[in-house]
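protien #1 (seq + structre)
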Amino acid sequence: MNKDSIEKLLRDKAGASVRLMQEGLNRYHVVTPFQFDDGDHLRVILSQKGNKWRFSDEGDTYLHLSYDISHQELGKGTRAKVIANVVATYGMQDNESELILETTEENIGDALFSFLQGLTRITDVSFLSREMVRSTFMEDFNRCISEIIPAERAKFGYSFPEKDPQKKYAIDCYVNGMAKPLLIYGINNTEKCHIAQINLLTFEKWGVSFRSVAIFEDQENINRRTLAKFSDVVEKQFSSLSETASRDRINKYLQEAISGK
């Protein structure tokens, strides 16, 4: 099957704007109107191996997602479940971040359409991180803490039983084993920042002895006035959980805190 024949089959199923650019023997760059948020087009490479045809993004989709979301975060929690579901639904393979769909010559047009739908659904994970930040951020927060602090010393969703039997002032993570327990809050929006401020002020009023730390999803998104008031009551803050450098500082701080340094 020559280039013109392949191009016709693809256009019949995926639209007249599809074009093929030959890059080698039985290897084509499939140009489509589908784009990422930054304006780059989805990368689709079509190649033939034996009697099979293969569509591949050559890892480009994950690469674009990693501009906003780390590879570690993409591989765990809600995001990973969404991607795995899309891969299975559209008959794709995830080969170490390279997305692949294999097909036969007679189904090549339908396969391209499915592949483009799958890639588009996967790129929506970037919107998931914005629209469902509460669930994904707290998953990342809990995982980060669990990787640093031994399970017997970390209590998630903890409330002081004597002072707060109705659990109105829950602490995201309570760390014991020191002269003063460490109260850790994950802050992903202005409302949560305000709640954490009220909690810490309440604990002070109760005469509870503690140290406190806040880890933000993105501190720049917090209302300035609320953040200023919160900064007066919290002992230590980290502006982001997603940045590698910030993760390293969080790790170092928590390691020193639980060792009593």
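ok now protien #2
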Amino acid sequence: MKKTGVVIFIAIIILSWRASAIVGVSPGIYEVNFEPGLKESYVFSYKFDEGVNAEVYAEGDLAEYVTLSTDSLVGGGAVIATVELPGYIEEPGDHKIFIGAMQKADTLGGSIGMVGNVRGVILVKVPYPGKYALISEFYATNANQGEPVNFTLHVNSLGQEGITVTALVEIFDESNSSLEIVNLGSSYLEPKENKIFFKQFQTTNSKAGDYRARAIVKYDAGEITKERMFRLGTLYVGISNYTREFTKEKINKFEVEIESFWNNQLNDVYADVNIIGYDIEFLTPSLDLTPWQKTRLSGFFDTSGIKEDNFQANITVHYANEKTNEIVELKFIREVDYVLYALILGGIFVGILVLSIIIVLVILLTRVRKPLNNKRRQKNKSI
């Protein structure tokens, strides 16, 4: 009866749950370049569950310059946010105005629900005084050894004056040694203008491994940098770990952790494991490896015929007509003799118990002897 009551209670909760699963705003963001006294209207469309009341609001450091077409919505709808900017904004950079719709909690009634809060953004870009450059994005793609690496650099002119920029990429190896500087070109950017620089770096003479690329943009007012890591792959799957301990006289699971160093997918990768000195061999199921993926291959084998506590296995990983081989040391887990431990612990417990009883008896005998001795002394005094 108790279990039935619990099931009914859970069912009532689930059926009474009226959560706002349909929430959203479109578009998510508008980008605006600051102009003194700019007046512009922006439309945001909100979506809520049918009948849900929402309060519309504006917040952010420029929210005081916003007028909203409505302060509430029912089940969603359109909101027109009219922005009338001042003649001057002291702080340069990006200023976010949030136009939000907050679901009113009291519209949920007695049911369980989630309060939705959806916000669109008006991003006001205030130019910096003088000349100012920003690296907004920098990409360096992974590739295989001998294939080109793509460098893509986005530079923004955010100042009130135009700038002349030169874009470079310096390449460092794993030991942090500078290998080469790639020139992506030069260009003049007007205020508020964006420029994308692109160039391919040829890796014919480069080794496989991890590299660091540092984008350098030099312009009239100084220099800015941004870094990214990229990898050059080689057709190799490494064995990074494996199961080392097993249980005797049982079927055991054997896992081999592998890692791809190739920038393309490898299909039908599997391991062939042979226990050296025994007629024991098994294959793991095959799987596909995505570029640079680390995963595990798993198989099973019976240890019944292995007598030694320490033994060896030859692991061979097969992939794309290639293979990686490693001979590894394995061992059995030392078995615990629970009966012996129980006897030892039992003996210790009995010993402690006997010792405790002896101590208690000694204390009791000592207390009994004291009154008898006192009585004898008093009797001798009276005589």
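The helical segments are 2-16, 338-382.
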